[in-house]
Amino acid sequence: MGMSQHRRLLAPLALVGVAGIALAGCSGGPGSSTGGGGGGEENVVTVYGTIADTEAELLEESWADWEEENGIDIEYESSKEFEAQIAVRAQGGNAPDLAIFPQPGLMSDIAAQGFLKPVPDAVQANIDEGWSEDWAQYGQYDGTQYGAPLMASVKGWIWYSPAQFAENGWEIPTDWQGMLDLTTQAQSTLGTAPWCVAFGSDAATGWPGTDWIEDIVLRQSGPEVYDQWVANEVPFTDPQIASAFDEFGKIALDPNYVNAGFGGTDTIVTTPFGDAATALADGTCALHHQASFFDGFITDAGATVAPDGDIWAFLMPPFEAGSEGNVVTGGGEIVAAFSDDEATQKVQEYLSSADWANSRVSLGGVISANKGLDPENASSDILTEAITILQDPETTFRFDASDLMPSAVGAGTFWKGMNDFVNGTPTATVLEQIESGWPSS
After folding, report:
1. Which pLDDT score, from 0 to 100, does residue 411 have?
2. Rg (CA), the chain
3. Does the pLDDT of residue 10 top 50, yes or no?
4. Residue 430 — φ and ψ, nearest 5°?
5. Which residue in 121, 109, 175, 115 sits closest to 145, CA to CA?
């Protein structure tokens, strides 16, 4: 299972209006769909995904006017078992017309089995117009476009208190060493650990750690190595990946730096990831690493999120100062079709358009990387900033590596390895264990 699903699953419902793509919930079990991959009622299109609860209501609201105008009934079904059930349903002849995949890797697995339909020309035109080449590739398998991007998130934010920084004369770091220096400075000034690090996420415990490693690999070794790592051409045991773990360990394994408000480094794995928001809001924690969706958690904890508010965020800096443009990791979702009937194609075309992106983003809580999205439609300052970054041609964007890897690694040994790492298992042992999860063929 991909990490994005678990992030959505654990989001408080009160936050859904402000929580971002990573918080789109998942609930309810799998069941039969009316459409069944094109075998359903005329002008009824079934859509299956992980988005649930209030966010599912917003999703349905985003296309309600379009449904009426086009005489098509979109029937949406969510499931917390999506990743396991989508293959079962496809193999059993009970596939939905469209599926919203939280992980490109899972979409590729289904495409490899021959269940998905290549996108029609109108969808391809929307992809060419509205999405970068990188984003387009996340919907491809073996050179064929099977899916179109939907929503997005930007990861790698470092959350902090602007007032605390101003009071102590701390500055936003411009490189990785500067972040380590800031950590030392903050610990010296405060006399306590400045960082809160929380990996707890029930069965998905460990995913926040993978985000740290992904951010460091991309910044330290560059996009080419990152891509090779995702494909296992650069294995976890490679010195470049080991270096990323060791750099993370300079913060996460030091009891002087972690774990503010919760105890020692031994509390990283046991602390629910959302609890860090309370520590930020009450001033117990000075620094925290988490994606753009975290503004919802912080707001729920009673703090305002704004450049001049209680809490704000800066992107993890480049490994070396002077790099041009932002280098960021992120996540998102891909819409792919099991049916190629006319109604399904029309819905897929709409969901791949700037019109849909603006409709959904204006309802709050999410963003999209669609070039035609107006950043002013975002519901919070941090989401506006995230959209601006995604739309900047100078930005180097890479999808969450664990969501691109086979699930046995990305949602398996990688998560477990992060937990073992912060609990003191040597780096080399951890990397060998993670690498062992890669399928043999």
Report:
1. 86
2. 21
3. no
4. -60, -45
5. 121
What is the per-residue pLDDT across 37-89, written as a single tens digit (0 to 9) for each? 544 567 999 999 998 888 899 999 999 999 999 999 999 999 988 888 999 99
Residue 47 shares a structural domain with residue 107: yes
Residue 90, beta-bridge partner list: none
Does 227 lie in the same domain as 113?
Answer: no
β-pair type (44-49, 73-78): parallel
Running DSSP on this structure, what letter comes out for residue 120?
Answer: P
Element (H, E) at 433: helix 427-435
CATH of the domain at 91: 3.40.190.10
Secondary element (H or E) of residue 208: helix 207-221
**CA distances from residue 302 to 134, 276, 282, 289 in whole angstroms, order as listed:** 37, 13, 9, 19
- Which of 155-164, 393-402, 419-428 has the weakest average pLDDT? 393-402
Residue 293 lies in a domain: yes
Euclidean distance between the first and the last CA atom of the chain, given in angstroms as a whole number: 20
Would you state the structure tokens that stand for residue 287, as one six-digit string? 């620094």
pTM above 0.90, yes or no: no
pLDDT value of residue 34: 40
Say if residue 102 is in the same domain as residue 127: yes
Rounded Cα gap, residues 27 and 49, in angstroms = 10
User: Do residue 236 and residue 163 come from a single domain?
Assistant: yes
Domain assignment present for 19: yes
User: Would the pLDDT of 420 be above 70?
Assistant: yes
User: Which residue range(s) make up the domain with 219?
Assistant: 157-325+402-435
How far, in Å, are 163, 172, 332 from residue 309 at the CA level? 8, 16, 28
Residue pair 249/183 in contact (Cβ under 8 Å)? The answer is no
The domain tally of the chain equals 2
pLDDT, averaged across the chain: 90
